[in-house]
Amino acid sequence: MKKYDIAIIGGGPAGVTCALSAKNIYPEKNVVLIRKEPKPMIPCGIPYVFHTLNEVSDNILPDTPLIANKIEIINDEAIGRNENKIILQNNGELEFDKLVLATGSKAVLPKIENVDKENVFLIMKDKEYLKNLKTRIQESEKIVILGGGYIGVEVADELLKAKKEVTIVEMMDTLLQSMDKEFGDKVKEILENNGCKIITGKSVDKILGDKKVNAVELNDGSKVDCDLLIISCGYKPNVELAEKFNLVVEEGKGILVDAYLRTSEKDIFAIGDCAAKYDFYTGEFSNIMLASTAMAEGRLVGTNLYSIKVIRQYPGVLGSFSTKIGDTAFAVSGIIEKRAKARSLDYTVGFAKSVDRHPGKLPGASEVTVKLIFSTYSHTLMGAQITGGDSVGEMINIVSVMILNKMTDIDINNLQIGTHPLLTASPVAYPIINATVDAIKKWYKMQAV
Questions:
Q1: What is the mean pLDDT of the chain?
Q2: Which of 74, 258, 273, 276 has the highest Cβ tally under 10 A?
Q3: pLDDT tens digit string along 154-168?
Q4: Distance (Å, rounded) from C-alpha 288 to C-alpha 169?
């Protein structure tokens, strides 16, 4: 039986990042990464295998960095544990000193009558499953997507580009629940302009057809014809192995961990989607599952396996994310207005619109809209939502740093920024600063009353 200093179970972004981080900090330690999938997928790239990418294999997470760092890869399934020994399905046992669980998440399958019919699919992180789904999509014409979150709208956008007839069914009153309604409505408008049918405020109760789906019945009794149904109702932490290992788990939230991702056993850590997340502002459990968060956790744990070398500077997840629907990018970080309102936070909103080139007639220019949420009395930035051109993807990263560092409206107003006509908005109309100024003006108006 072989012994490893560090064993990591899970081959997604969290597991890979942790392995590389551990090897960087502890080069003398031998590290093994155990994964079920011979070829793991890049999770965020999955929607694009259905049209933009030629093959599902174009979205494989490469092993090159692992091999270059002499990290051993075992393609097998961990099925149990005996103290500090992992039991593998096909390769006996291996011994570990430190263990990291990075088992990810599983697609949610809601209770729907006849859900086992042919041509009903989830969005799973499995290469062969996705290859089959891609083939069935190519053979289909009318496709229903249940769920209007990020993955649902990204898949819809891809299928529209492939000239499919697409209907989204979303039980809430708007798309993209992680953003405020005006942004979700903008996504709806873009998709509808590209030919998508959007049904909100309803859900699928029943799948119709003989062996194969030919329609879905909604909860109001109406029917939507389709020859393929994609269920995209979110993900839940994969805690099956953690439960077998007798670790403490919070139902529906993940493996319970402390600030340094340590589980109920001191030599076992949990990172990524399988680990419980906590809201940056309230400390409540959070359902946010993002590769960026997983990789940050992987780096932290990889560094701190044998002693705490890096102090964790933030208590929870911001939920920084971006996507692109049609030609328009959408991004969010931190708290949004509807959540601030629901949590009774006292906040001030700042808005700004500008063009991300100057002058605005330069090639590639696009209108950018920024919505910032500030704490009214501490003046710290709590959240941001941005829509516009490709520049939005990096703008939200800048804002995330501002939030993490508790920058105030005055701090942001005094920023010294770099601008260029071909690259950014005008320094006179830089949208993040102008949205901040809008919030400051509102604050002063309140004080004058």
A1: 96
A2: 273
A3: 999 999 999 999 999
A4: 22
**pLDDT tens for each residue of 292-316:** 999 999 999 999 999 999 988 777 8
- Whether residue 448 is predicted with pLDDT greater than 80 in this model: the reply is no
CA distance 273 to 387: 27
Coil, strand or helix: which one is 350? strand
CB atoms within 10 A of CB 306: 15
Query: Are domains 109-233 and 321-448 of this chain identical in fold?
Result: no
Report d(CA 447, CA 432) in Å as an integer.
23
DSSP secondary structure code for residue 427 in this structure: G
Amino acid present at 201: G
- Domain ranges within the chain, ordered by starting residue: 2-106+236-304, 109-233, 321-448
- How far apart (Å, rounded) are the C-alpha atoms in residues 344 and 350? 18
* Residue 74 DSSP symbol: E
CA distance 189 to 108: 27
Q: How confident is the model at residue 449 (pLDDT cuts 50, 70, 90)?
A: low
Residue 245's nearest CA partner among 270, 223, 210 is: 270
Show the beta-strand stretches assigned E in 71-177.
72-75, 78-82, 85-88, 93-101, 105-107, 120-122, 142-146, 165-170
Strands 254-255 and 142-146: unpaired
Fold of 321-448: Enolase-like; domain 1 (3.30.390)
The alpha carbon torsion through 261, 266, 268, 271 (nearest 10 deg) reads 0
What share of the chain in percent tops pLDDT 70? 99
Superfamily of domain 2-106+236-304 in CATH is FAD/NAD(P)-binding domain (3.50.50.60)
